[in-house]
Amino acid sequence: MAYSKEERYTGNTTELIASHYREILKLIGEDPDREGLLKTPERVAKALQFLTQGYGQDGSEIISSAIFKEEYKQMVLVKDIELYSTCEHHIMPFIGKAHVAYIPDGYITGLSKIARVVETYARRLQVQERLTVQIRDCIQQTLHPLGVAVVIEAAHTCMQIRGVQKANAITTTSAFSGVFLKDERTRNEFLNLIKG
After folding, report:
1. How far apart are CA 132 and CA 86, in angstroms?
2. Which of 110, 126, 149, 182 is the most buried (most CB within 10 A)?
3. Could you say which of 49, 90, 144, 189 is catalytic?
4. Which residues, in sequence order, are bridge partners of residue 153?
5. Is 156 a catalytic residue?
6. Catalytic residue among 126, 138, 156, 160
7. How many CA atoms lie within 13 A of 133 on its CB side?
8. Does the global pTM surpass 0.70?
C-alpha cells in the first residue's frame, strides 16, 4: 500500500528509508558503521525522495496556474528540456531531453509550465514510453489545444552500465494528439524543428 503525500514527505519517512538502506548495505557485504558509510543511508534516502518528488506534484495544476486567453494558432515548441528520471525496473537513472509542442485553441500556458510538467512526470519511477504519454495527455486534457506533440530522447544507465552494456544507445519515444496525429505536414514541421 502506498503512503499518502503527507506521509512521504516527513523526517520520519527519511529515517525509515535510511534504515532500509542500512540493511541493504549489510546485505551486499558492507559495514554501514564504517566511517565512509555512516551517513550514506540518510543521503540515499534524501536523494531518492528528491528523485521521486513528482509524486507530490500535479501536472494539471501546474498548467492551470498560468492559462492565458490568446488567439495565437501556430505551433508553440519548447525543445531540449533536460530530463532526469529513474527507471522503475532497476532504480537507475535515465537522462535525456524532451521536445514538447502544442497548437493553441484560444488559450496558451506559460512556457516554464511546459518544462515543469516534464519535470513532474520525470521525477517518478518511470518507463520512457509512459512518461512520453503522460506529458502529452496532461497538456491535452488541461489546456485543450488543437494538438500536442512530445518526443523524448534518453540514455538509460540500466542499459549502459549493466546488462547489455551499450554506452551509446539512445532511446527515442513519441506521442502525438490532435492535428499532430492527423496532419502529416504539421507533424513533419515539428519533427524538422526539433532536428535543428
Report:
1. 14
2. 149
3. 90
4. 97, 172
5. yes
6. 156
7. 5
8. yes
Distance CA 24, CA 38 (A): 13
Q: Running DSSP on this structure, what letter comes out for residue 75?
A: -
53 annotated active-site: no
Active site residue 88: yes
- Mean pLDDT of the region 87-113: 97
pLDDT the model gives residue 7: 65
144 catalytic, yes or no?
no
Q: In the Cβ-directed half-sphere of 177, how many Cα atoms lie within 13 Å?
A: 22
C-alpha cell at 101: 509542442
Residue 128 annotated as catalytic: yes
Q: What is d(CA 178, CA 188) in angstroms, rounded to the nearest whole number?
A: 14
The half-sphere exposure of 162 on its side-chain side, counting CA atoms within 13 A, is 9
DSSP run (H or E) holding 22: helix 11-27
The grid coordinates of residue 115 equal 518544462
Going by pLDDT thresholds of 50, 70 and 90, the confidence category of residue 182 is: very high
Give the angle subtended at the CA of 162 by the CAs of 156 and 168, to the nearest 5°.
45
Catalytic, out of 87, 134, 138, 140: 87
CA distance from start to end of the chain: 46
Q: What is the pLDDT of residue 10?
A: 62
153 — pLDDT class (breaks 50, 70, 90)? very high
Active-site entry in 99, 119, 128, 160: 128
